[in-house]
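Dear Dr. H.,

I hope your travels went smoothly. While you were away I took the liberty of generating a structure for the chain from your last submission, since the lab meeting agenda had it listed for discussion. I wanted you to have the full record in hand beforehand rather than looking at slides cold. The sequence, exactly as received, is reproduced here:
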Amino acid sequence: MRTALISTFVMLQLVGCSGPMGPIPGKELEGIATPWPADWTFTEDIENVLLQTNPQDPYSVTVWGVHQNSNFYIAGANPDSNWVENIQRDGQVVLSVENKLYNALAMTVTDAEELSSVLTLFVGKYEIEPDSTFIEDGGVLFRLSPTVASVSSSPEPTHTQ
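The corresponding predicted structure, in token form, is as follows:
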């Protein structure tokens, strides 16, 4: 009986949440709309960030991210995952870092030099084995760029649209 009550409580908690919980996807992210930073070094010690895709029917996931210069990158190993497919249909995304929301446009990185240098950053930050066949195996790397709204907006509590 106790196990059933705990399971019911956990399920109710999951249903009531907007964003993802660990590996379980969520819906619209909540947080503070924040202008795009010129420098992403504050993310060096942040392991997970949240990403919202599909503006018409928000779908959010927990992902890894790295920065290089003024750019922020996310990578997807599975090209068939919902969030990767959503980005390929519509690149408008919302990135959430420590409850701050950044409106962005996700663009697939195809330049070999940029791919190599950014994938090296993922290997170093997450202490994973280098995978020289990441792209050939269907992996995709996205560069996030600010949208006009994310550059000019002033911070205020909001829900993303």
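Two observations you may find useful: Strands lie at 30-33, 48-53, 59-68, 71-76, 92-97, 100-108, 140-146, 156-159. The first strand starts at residue 30 and ends at 33.

With kind regards,
E. W.
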